[in-house]
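Supplementary Methods, section 5.1.

A reviewer requested that the exact input to the structure prediction be made available. We therefore reproduce it here, unchanged from the version used in the analyses.
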Amino acid sequence: MKVNKEFLIPFVGLKQGKHQFEFEIDKKFFEYFDFDEYENVNIKVDLTLDKKSTMLELSFKHKGTVNVPCDISNENFDLPVKGKLNLIVKFGEEYNDENDEMLVLPHGEYQVDVSQYIYEMIVLSVPLKRVNPESVRNSVTQNKIEPATEKPAGTDTKEETDPRWDKLKNLLTDN
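The structure derived from this sequence is encoded token-by-token as follows.
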């Protein structure tokens, strides 16, 4: 996988405090990861980097849509997704990303690559079952529509009712 310079954040020149970054994610972003499960992607990622004296705190938030096939109708639709991820970056002897919530960078590093974290955050926010609400509405409507049935010739149109209820109906009309 190539490193995309757009997702490298140089933190050495930043002052202590909070810094905002925005990323527009599209289908090309996922091509870097050889991931082609989405037909189209339109997601905005907001990243807040809080630089402290001994560590960095990264807060990711994303919101947008991914175009995926519906599990019911197999037609593509735009599935809304959103999510967030918090990451702590500390400094140590060697690189270590074994912990999901903490990244250890070697002393002397001057930038952090956030592309892998953005990728994982988006992919994990897409549900396993992808159902277009329109497909659900259409299938429910089709199930409620009953085919018209014709009554055989010579059948009474008057329904038979329980005689006890007929007596009660008379009470309503006897005014």
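The chain has one domain: 5-128. These observations are discussed further in the main text.
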